[in-house]
Amino acid sequence: MTISLETPCVIIDTDILARNIQTMADRVGQHNTVKLRPHAKTHKLPSVAQLQIDAGAVGITVAKVSEAEVMAAHGIGNIFIAYPLVTVSKIERAIRLSEKIELIVAVDSLAGALLIEQTAARLGHTVQVRLEIDTGLRRTGVLYEQAPALAAEIARLPHLRLTGIYTFRGALLDGKPTLDVAAAGWEEGQLMADLADRLRTAGIAIEDVSVGSTPTALYAAAVPGVTEVRPGTYVYQDRMQAQLGVCELEDCAGSVLVTVVSRPSADLAIVDGGSKTFATDVQPGTNPLHLRGFGHIHGLDDAFLTRLSEEHGMLELGPLAQAANLQVGDQLRIIPNHICSTVNLHNQVVMQRGDTFERLPVLARGMLE
Amino acid sequence: MTISLETPCVIIDTDILARNIQTMADRVGQHNTVKLRPHAKTHKLPSVAQLQIDAGAVGITVAKVSEAEVMAAHGIGNIFIAYPLVTVSKIERAIRLSEKIELIVAVDSLAGALLIEQTAARLGHTVQVRLEIDTGLRRTGVLYEQAPALAAEIARLPHLRLTGIYTFRGALLDGKPTLDVAAAGWEEGQLMADLADRLRTAGIAIEDVSVGSTPTALYAAAVPGVTEVRPGTYVYQDRMQAQLGVCELEDCAGSVLVTVVSRPSADLAIVDGGSKTFATDVQPGTNPLHLRGFGHIHGLDDAFLTRLSEEHGMLELGPLAQAANLQVGDQLRIIPNHICSTVNLHNQVVMQRGDTFERLPVLARGMLE
To answer: Which has the closest alpha carbon to B78: B42, B102, B46?
Structure first.
């Protein structure tokens, strides 16, 4: 079937989308004390955030003040900016936004906390903050062992209200990527619940213990003491999550529609999507996923998107795919390795409802922070 | 110096930009019979395309009909869409555009040529086309040995005017990436000039022999018989080109301004740009470039952007960089490995003229084809 859409474009199957949203909400809901606060980084769409909230999410997570501003302007009323704000202009914008919606911001250093304190004091506000903890990924987050001392200092600042701790770790064990997402999730939750207890013992009233990624959220949610999970990718799912065993390829709501533009030889088809269409941050062949190529080709199990230039995708065809006799002009649907960074390349996605297709601008993408 | 811009953002130094444009125009201009038709994929900005034309370029090259439409709407009057058009809707759009500007389209298969022929006949137009040749990159382009037969068939189609051949090969020798860009460019030009001669002998009036990338353009331009070069990256330059010896890091007009958001340990700084800010299509450590990390950190020679997550860049600090004592809130300028795909991630770039900064929307990015 040829779809009358210009290619390349990202198509989101709204039935699968609805199912993914409901499934995660139901599963998190089995743990009575755990809230779901999805990360909107995957879709960057207020309308999808609203679907998540309608299904039971307490609010959403974003990475940027600008994303929070767009989401709030479109009716999302409860947002956690899970990223340290360290410049006055962004802190001011966040405080202004907190006059309109429930807003929580992140902090992971005394320098950052003091800047928020000074700005909040000047504007006559109190800011709800969560302390980010590094549980092994080595990116932002105060080192685990240094967290109690920093939390104590932050708790003393009069214009900050330290109500929680959070971490992001993903599918990681012993500092290395892992396929054992159950163990990873359990350990992540355990580390954070333990830390929250230590902070409470020290007199700091930690309410929120927020953890979890798409692969680890449900395992971390089962840990007593965890109060919130923040999966993002689950909303669309992708080939990486399928490889991790978190979903099946049939659960992937997002795919890229491309057109075969050239058939230079029997074993090669060129499609009109390259590295400006498919994200390249999850590379083929890397541990522990060992993905072959940059996406899964729907219906052609031995075709592999092995090379990309900016606007060209080189599809190596095995015997079965060669037998399919692809023609110039044929369309293919490809599930990308990483849907979050793939959507981020596109100004629009196409929402598919059965046989109808609706273009939707990805409102919160391409934002300066 | 702290620049009062929200980060992350791409900054283009307009002095370096002007110098890069002039240098390429001058060098290509030394070959009297060779025209310059820059690929606009790097900047995707009509205003920069106009600067290239003002400096002597005959027109520009793009990859998509939509990009051509945006460029034409902003005054660019001579465009080559160097990409096979294989769907009726795009061919129609191209033909409509050719009523307003000088337009050349690409073809690399009989199927594509016949579709253009039928569409052009229906609309009562004649379309100027160039045949794409595969000179070793194995992406689009008819195989070199099959080109004469296909060219003969295309030349017989009454609504197509086959005026040229073109190829893209980049820094490639014997099918592999190479640092010997002089040999690569010479061979590329030679292959195409030879083929043009064979086609002319066969009675096909080939006027344009269009070749070249930023690394190979000037070497290919020196080959007798080459009539046009299409470099793209040179306009901004980047770390990859510097590593290839094509330019110095000082010639890079484009950089990404980021802010240090976290200093979790002495050997690590986290900046607010990840894989949604820096392109990941030119990976660290890959042959023949052996680049360390995803960008060159201005002023910190032993700091390396070794890991990216979506919104985090992990900067490993060597002894010298550690001595610089980076603070949370400090800004850094980073020259990305690949500027074309990095610019493509951003809705806007910031044009720097001395101490003044002007935001410019990247008008032709994010286009559906």
So the answer is: B102
pLDDT band at residue B2, thresholds of 50, 70 and 90?
confident
What per-residue confidence (pLDDT) applies to A253? 98
Collapsing DSSP to helix, strand or coil, B13 comes out as strand
Minimum distance, in Å, between the CA of residue B97 and any CA atom of chain A: 17
Distance from CA of B32 to the nearest CA of A (A): 31
β-pair type (B142-143, B127-134)? parallel
Under 8 Å between Cβ of A230 and A217: yes
Q: Do B368 and A9 touch (CB under 8 A)?
A: yes
> In angstroms, rounded to a whole number, what is the distance separating the alpha carbons of residues B125 and B47?
30
∠ CA B205-B167-A310, nearest 5°, is 145
At A264, which helix (H) or strand (E)?
strand A254-265
Counting one residue from chain A and one from chain B, the pairs whose CB atoms sit within 8 A come to: 178
Mean pLDDT score of chain B = 97
Q: How far apart are CA B278 and CA B334, in angstroms?
A: 9
ipTM above 0.90, yes or no: yes
- For residue A342, the chain B residue with the least C-alpha distance is B276
pLDDT at B4: 87
Q: Give the pLDDT confidence of B219-242 residue by residue, as tens digits.
A: 999 999 999 999 999 999 999 999
The residues, ordered by sequence, that sit 6+ positions from B103 with a Cβ below 8 Å of its Cβ are: B68, B79, B80, B81, B94, B97, B128
Domains of chain B: 31-232 (3.20.20.10), 246-361 (2.40.37.20)
Q: Which of B204, B205, B210 is nearest to B227 (CA)?
A: B210
The answer for residues whose C-beta is within 8 angstroms of residue A111's C-beta and 6 or more apart is A86, B327, B328, B329
The torsion angle over the Cα atoms of residues A247, A248, A252 and A255, rounded to 10 degrees, is 130
Q: Which residues in chain B (122-161) have CB-CB distances under 8 A to chain A? A: 134, 137-143
**For A210-219, how does the pLDDT look when each residue is reduced to its tens digit (9 = 90+)?**
999 999 999 9
Contact A139 B312 (CB under 8 A): yes
Residue B278: burial class (beta carbons within 10 Å; 0-12, 13-18, 19+): buried
DSSP A145: G
Residues within 8 A of A (CB atoms), B 64-103 only: 64, 66, 83-84, 86-87, 89-90
Selected residues 275-334 of chain A with any CB under 8 Å from a CB in chain B: 275-276, 279-281, 283, 307-312, 314, 327-329
Measured CA to CA, the distance from residue B282 to residue B294 in angstroms comes to 8
Beta-carbon separation of B139 and A312 below 8 A: yes
Q: CB distance A139–B309 less than 8 Å?
A: yes
C-beta atoms of A281 and B275 within 8 A: yes
pLDDT, tens only, A75-133: 999 999 999 999 999 999 999 999 999 999 999 999 999 999 999 999 999 999 999 99
Q: Would the CB atoms of A264 and B142 count as touching at under 8 Å?
A: yes
Q: What is the rounded average pLDDT of the residues A278-286?
A: 96
Determine the Cα–Cα distance for residues B231 and B221; give it in Å rounded to an integer.
11
Using a CB-CB distance cutoff of 8 angstroms, which residues of chain B are in contact with residue A89? 4, 6
How many other C-beta atoms are found inside a 10 Å radius of the C-beta of residue A176? 10
Q: What residues of chain A lie within 8 A of the CB of B134, using their CB? A: 264
Residue of chain A whose alpha carbon sits nearest to that of B267: A138
Instruction: Report the alpha-carbon distance of residue B293 to residue B309 in Å, rounded.
Output: 13
Which residues, in sequence order, are CB contacts of B289 under 8 Å at separation 6+? B177, B240, B243, B244, B282
Angle separating helix axes A14-29 and A46-54, nearest 10 degrees: 40
Put simply, the chain B residues between 226 and 245 with a CB less than 8 A from any chain A CB are none
Q: Render pLDDT for B140-188 as a digit per residue (tens, 0 to 9).
A: 999 999 999 999 999 999 999 999 999 999 999 999 999 999 999 999 9
